[in-house]
Design goal:
The complex is a heterodimer of chains A (316) and B (370). By secondary structure, chain A is mostly helical. Chain A has twelve helices and two strands; from the N terminus they run H-H-H-H-H-E-E-H-H-H-H-H-H-H. Chain A is 69% helix and 3% strand. Chain A has a two-stranded antiparallel ribbon with strand order 1-2. Chain B has a two-stranded antiparallel ribbon with strand order 1-4. In chain B, strands 2-3 form a two-stranded antiparallel sheet. The chains are: A mainly alpha (316), B mainly alpha (370).
Chain lengths: 316, 370
């Protein structure tokens, strides 16, 4: 029982940054924009959030900085792909190169100025610490369900996104821009505005995911080697895995979060597979989902039809 | 009423005009990079000079050491970019250069570990053939799913990179682990190492030969023409009697195979082992290189060289001035400007100032008064 709760805690802990990254990328992809810059934006958010926390000590400002910095990067992507019609794949990959580089350069400069890797004060860490919920029936009161405020925030964002896409007129406009921009345009939807808004908002949310990793996962120390480290790419995979559905993203992110820590909880006597396969699992499952949904050619598959394709009105 | 900004496709720019655009983008990128360096409270000119110096000027003991290191970075990047160009020409988004490089290296490693007693030349040829098969198969899988069930190749090839990455981790920690207490394959037998020509492993000659081969293949061979037609329009290719599926499969095998060769060259020429870091991110950088070069093999060589100089040079900047990842930032800035410049190569913008309409209305008013 205790072990089970610890496992759930670990899944929530690893799944939260994934959920932010996944939702951010999902929002961008809904409008037809495949932004492969998630990894870069998460890194930028990780640094901006950490730096703001160190300077101001305010959790709110820290998260705003992470959101803002990553949204700014996303705005560059939006300008290049929507206004200047640059190739989405190349622009996204460039954003990753740029974002990871920028965050490491600035992080290194911060350490140089500080004379070593800085640590966030305990008073700051308390502000974003998990709520500890005691579980009745568990062995002793040491074992508690740990839920971070940011985890709840991410879930609320996902629910809001689901409602937005399903129930509102603007949600429909965004989906139309990702499915059939020409039809949306003809119906009077401002396709460019929908894409800009989706890319920038999505980017900002990715940034918060990065901040979770530098503020919470790294336990308040600036550890450039171990923070985002590929989570952005898992988020790209997750968007496919959850078939572009925000509600499923909640489940998907925590399942993928569980994969990250599963190897510590499954005894070798039960299943003995090499560690590398646990890490490979998210990507293999994503491939299977990608194949199966393409085979069924389901209309409800969820993949925005015009994903990755820029829209030119004059080529309509 | 007309839109304020009207964008139209423009006729192709002349060579001179294109060159001017490239120079403008490059100039702006250097200025923007300089602003970034200045914001980091460093002297941009000094940092740029340090990068160039770091990439070319070696130590007193070995004056060519820096150039050699730059070339070692250049070789795999060039080969991967060439491989990816073929797929991109077909508008097949092969984002899987990383994985194809790794699988080429994995297949080659099998022979490096088990057949190192063979004569060197036989062993190297075996490893080469193995890397072609390994990388080719890794490129063929997404192509198969693409032609059979139209599975999105961008996402598919991207995921395949990580399957390859963790396959290497598995091999390192399990079947091929050769160092006690540490997940590593250890160094290859000395017999595996590629011979050196001019101080750098022979891979650089292979890379340059591939530039010529890919150029000829793309512009002179029937197969290269077929790739271009499929890239332009699958329907046209189909009506012209081409077997589109076959062309897609064949091209992706070749694209992956060339990436696989890059992996083999890297492990046998430089790393002397199989590790997850073997690609040095070349599979991803190669995508931007191929795109920047507009799939022209000679331009691919020039841009690969530029990126390698930037990366090697940045490594030599002292860490208290700036960390080596500045290379990524500068590379990113450069690419952003080139991505923007591409727009002005293809389109012209007309701004319809509203003044004309105002004047028009004024005239009408005058008529009415008269």
């Amino acid at each position: 029982m205790d072990n089970a709760i610890n496992f759930i805690n670990a899944a929530l802990f690893a799944g939260t940054p994934l959920l932010f990254g996944t939702l951010g990328e999902l929002i961008s992809e809904k409008a037809g924009c495949l932004n492969l810059g998630v990894e870069g934006m998460m890194w930028v958010g990780a640094f901006a959030g950490f730096f703001a926390a160190l300077q101001t000590g305010s959790a709110m400002l820290s998260l705003l900085a992470a959101f803002g910095a990553a949204a700014l990067c996303a705005a560059v992507y939006a300008f290049l792909t929507v206004t200047l019609r640059a190739n989405q794949n190349v622009t996204g990959l460039t954003l990753t190169t740029f974002g990871v580089g920028l965050s490491l350069v600035l992080g290194s400069a911060m350490c140089q100025a500080n004379g070593g890797a800085p640590n966030l004060p305990g008073s700051f860490r308390d502000k974003i610490a998990a709520f500890k919920i005691p579980i009745p029936g568990s062995g002793d009161d040491v074992v508690k369900l740990a839920v971070y405020p940011l985890t709840i925030f991410a879930i609320v964002l996902c629910i809001s996104a689901a409602v937005f896409y399903k129930k509102t007129r603007h949600g429909l406009s965004v989906r139309a821009s990702g499915e059939n921009p020409a039809a949306a345009d003809a119906a009077g939807v401002n396709v460019s505005a929908m894409k800009y808004a989706s890319i920038i908002l999505g980017g900002g949310i990715c940034g918060i995911g990065g901040a979770f990793m530098s503020l919470v996962t790294a336990n308040g120390a600036w550890m450039p080697a171990g923070i985002v480290n590929g989570f952005g790419w898992i988020a790209v995979a997750l968007v496919i895995f959850v078939r572009w559905k925000p509600m499923l993203a909640i489940l998907g992110a925590f399942v993928f979060g569980a994969f990250q820590s599963m190897r510590y909880y499954i005894p070798d006597s039960v299943i003995s597979i090499p560690n590398a396969f646990y890490q490979m699992l998210p990507f293999v499952l994503t491939l299977i989902v990608l194949i199966v949904t393409s085979m069924r050619k389901s209309v409800h598959a969820g993949e925005p039809a015009a994903i990755g394709v820029n829209y030119y009105r004059e080529e309509r | 009423m007309k839109d304020l900004v009207h964008i139209t496709k423009r006729p192709e720019r002349s060579a001179l005009s294109s060159l001017g655009l490239i120079a403008a983008a490059l100039g702006l990128a250097i200025v923007a990079g300089g602003v970034f360096i200045a914001l980091m409270r460093q002297n941009p000119l000094e940092v740029y000079a340090a990068i160039i110096k770091g990439a070319f000027v070696g130590s007193k003991r070995d004056p060519f050491s820096a150039i050699k290191s730059t070339v070692i970075l250049f070789v795999p990047l060039l080969i991967v970019s060439l491989g990816l160009s073929l797929a991109f020409k077909m508008r097949f988004w092969n984002i899987g250069g990383e994985g194809q490089m790794m699988f080429g290296a994995i297949f080659a490693t099998f022979f490096a570990l088990n057949y190192s007693h063979l004569p060197h030349i036989v062993l190297v040829l075996l490893m080469f053939a193995a890397s072609v098969v390994g990388g080719g198969l890794w490129g063929l899988i997404p192509a198969l799913f693409r032609v059979k069930w139209s599975v999105n190749e961008t996402l598919f090839t991207l995921m395949m990179n990580y399957v390859a990455l963790y396959t290497i981790e598995f091999l390192q920690a399990g079947p091929w682990k050769r160092t006690p207490g540490f997940a590593s394959i250890g160094s290859f037998d000395a017999n595996v190492q590629l011979a050196k020509v001019g101080g750098v492993h022979v891979g650089w000659i292979l890379a340059l030969v591939l530039v010529v081969i890919v150029t000829v293949y793309m512009s002179r061979a029937k197969q290269g023409y077929e790739i271009a037609v499929v890239g332009e329009s699958k329907a046209t290719a189909h009506y012209a009697g081409m077997n589109v599926k076959k062309i897609v499969l064949r091209t992706m095998f070749i694209s992956g195979a060339i990436c696989g060769i890059a992996g083999m060259v890297q492990i046998a020429g430089s790393d002397n082992t199989l590790s997850t870091g073997l690609t040095g991110n070349a599979g991803f950088s190669g995508i931007t290189v191929a795109w920047l070069a507009q799939l022209n093999p000679f331009a691919v060589a020039v841009i690969s060289a530029l990126f390698s100089i930037l990366e090697k040079g940045s490594k030599t900047i002292p860490v208290d001035v700036m960390s080596k990842e500045a290379a990524n930032v500068l590379q990113g800035i450069l690419l952003f400007f080139f991505l923007g410049a591409e727009f002005f190569r293809r389109y012209s913008i007309k701004i319809n100032l509203p003044q004309k309409q105002v004047r028009h209305i004024q005239k009408e008013e005058e008529h009415a008064d008269g």
